# Entry
Amino acid sequence: MKKHEKPKSILVLHASVGAGHTRAAKAVASALALESPETRVVTVDALDLARPLFKRVYGKGYLDLVEKAPALFGYLFELTDRRPSPRALGDKLRRAVQRWGVGELADVLTGGQYDAIVNTHFLAPELIAALRLSGRLGAPQLTVVTDYDAHRIWVHSPTERYCVASPVAAASLRGHGVPGASIKVTGIPVDPAFSVPLDRDSARRSFGLSGGYPVVVQAAGGHGVGPLEEVYRALLASTVPSEIVVVCGRNEAGRKKLAAIKPPSRHRVKLLGFTDKMRGLMAAADLLVTKPGGLTISEALACALPMALVSPIPGQEERNSDYLLENGAAVKANAPAALTGKVESLLSSEARLTDMRRRAKGLGHPRAAFAVAREALELARGRSVAAPGAVSPVAADSAFVINPWAVPGLALTR
# Structure
């Protein structure tokens, strides 16, 4: 910071719909604190400022949809990744619901005197754009796309900067009308701890792992959703002796159910609940078995960790999966029953695992949070060379539904 320059203030917004958006926001906030200790950084969950009913339906509705009706979720995802109709009755209804539901967020945005705003979820950017177009907010915004392709829902103009995971996501944004100069391929921000190399043997000892067998980590995400038991049984069926670590997240009932299953004597098993030590676990692992959520696979790539992907949700997880498969960093089992053979094949070939580690390392961005932080600081200091550009037709007409209550295309009135 220059002498006599006033310290900057940056707002980092996320939404607690799944754990990934929150982890990305925390990673950016941590990197900002390290890059610029004098900068005031405020991290806010946009749903904490929403009306209680909106928050409950928005968050739970998403989880219920992907858990109980993934095919419908995928259909809606693909259907809405195109130019919408602003005059459709359903779109008008969703706009009205969101105007009602956003609650105190507009007041926080206009009253905080922020020099820049960083978004790691698509709920707030559309509201910010509307406030800016109405003249009620002047702060520039940066949006972090937390998947490896970019759905149209992320596009809201004016937005000065988009930080994306891959060239595929960058191309999709350009197809949705975003100027190329506004897009940076930074990777998805992961905790700064992932930028520090860890010794594999030390990491294994810290978890009580012997290191005599390959280490397979099964990750069920923060909420422990998905076919937890089916995937675990598929891993136990593998004939290759392994040390299997299962992270059940906050699904305590699921963890207890797994604990009642007697593993074959050839395997050693550890069952964990929610943990904040995924960095160490990934350093210890030879293979990660997971659903392809954007943050989880970004953490694995930062650790050069090969992956076996299980039952990706139609929509963004399928696109994430495609990116990893095309680049040779993962294999995929469309159902848990197919997982056993995939795992056996990988663990039986050190040459194949080594090649996958190399490819994963090439895709990884362990310092992505710092790259995003620097972009945000440049915006806050007024030094960004990229202009927000004209409002694209896609952004102007935006009215999106994956979660039935998500309503971009908001014309804000108060």
Remarks:
- The first strand starts at residue 9 and ends at 14.
- Residues 389-414 have pLDDT under 50 and may be disordered.
- Residues 198 and 283 are 6 Å apart (CA to CA).
